[in-house]
Amino acid sequence: MKLADRFSRLGTETAFAVADESRKLAQTGLRIFPFHIGDMDLKTPPNIIEATTRTMRDGKTGYCSNWGIPELREAVAADINRSHGTGYTEANVAIQPGGKPVIHKFILSFMNPGDEVLYPSPGYPIYESAIAFHGGRPVPYSYEETPQGFALNVQDIEKRITPATRLLIFNNLQNPTGAEASPEELAAIAELAIRHDLTVLCDEAYFDIRYEGESLSLATLPGMEERCLILYTFSKKYAMTGWRLGAAVGPTGMVDAIAKLNVNDESCTNHFVQYGGLEALTGPQDGAKQIIEVLRRRRNRCHELASGIPGMTCHRPNATFYLFPNVTRIMRAMKIDDYEKFRRTILEATGVSFCTRMHFGKPLPQENERYIRLSYSGIDVQNIEEGLGKLKDYLS
Residues 6 or more apart from 385 whose CB is under 8 A from it? Predict the structure, then answer.
């Protein structure tokens, strides 16, 4: 058997490899503190589960429209219109089996082989993987650490644009840094996109996972709604990561293309799960509010403890469920230059499992600082305290 040549260009989400490694170590008796993966240990609100099982009993277990059920498409459009001030309708929404398929379908629909695609680094690793796999040229752009947190390097984005640049992937409320663009940064990105005629994927997976302030969307700026496809997901807001339910939202021409790919890829999104999503959006919101409150307490405690570890500096994002501490001084003091050696040394010594900068793309040439990512979506406050306490003791 010989794999297709393109398969050599396909990357992976290496956080899952860290999770597998941690599970194997746990089987040897090592106590693991799972800061490594952005899964959630919180339960899906019961009204969503009840609505889903009811529709299963009612027979919603067959095929449905490749677009998704009309009621859910209308509800998604209404939800985005409330938060974005947009005018989307059912015709602007194609339901997906999760948020991740939107990335591949966006690239398949709008990128030709050889086109250049701008994507964030550090960033979600599937961006680069999908671009390369489908024959495009991945072009990374960077973030900069400032006293207030991580900021977009707009100048870096502009200098990477060439006549071959066609697409921009933009993840506000960003994984892994937790960065969110200021209104000025959003305006600058919109100006670049319009001036260079770029089609934009707005990955808004963490739009509703916020603790202070208000989330902003690039798609709401003048001239951007018609060139942006929004990646929408139920996974975070409603603790539905394993349900695999999301949506692509944008101009009808874009969404028509996505819906056509739905027919070819999976026929339709799971029928009865869509009714769970409908209940999530139209039913009581107590469960979603409780999820945010739990995550807020975890963020506060995780940030407090990480900031108290000698040699570690850590900003407190207003959104997402990640911290991205700077560990440059720690690695230097330990005389470890290799990210993987650093991660493994700490994991085996303390059971604290995390991802590093290397799990989110290769460091860019101008990067000199070292970072790890701590996810607190799958670990409660008690274990946050114990795990980071062990880490502090070990490093001390």
Answer: 301, 305
C-alpha angle 38-232-179 in degrees, rounded to nearest 5 = 55
Strand partners of residue 119: 140
Burial of 205 (0-12, 13-18, 19+ CB in 10 A): buried
C-alpha radius of gyration, the chain, whole number: 21
| pLDDT tens profile 367-387 | 899 999 999 999 999 999 999
Question: Three-state DSSP class for 294?
Answer: helix
Q: Would the pLDDT of 286 be above 90? A: yes
Helix%, strand%, coil% for the chain, nearest 5: 45, 15, 40
pTM across the whole model: 0.94
Please choose, from the candidates 104, 168, 100, the residue with its C-alpha nearest in 3D space to the C-alpha of residue 135: 104
Domains and CATH numbers, the chain: 5-43+287-395 (3.90.1150.10), 62-282 (3.40.640.10)
Spatial separation of the C-alpha atoms in residues 108 and 129, rounded to whole Å: 13
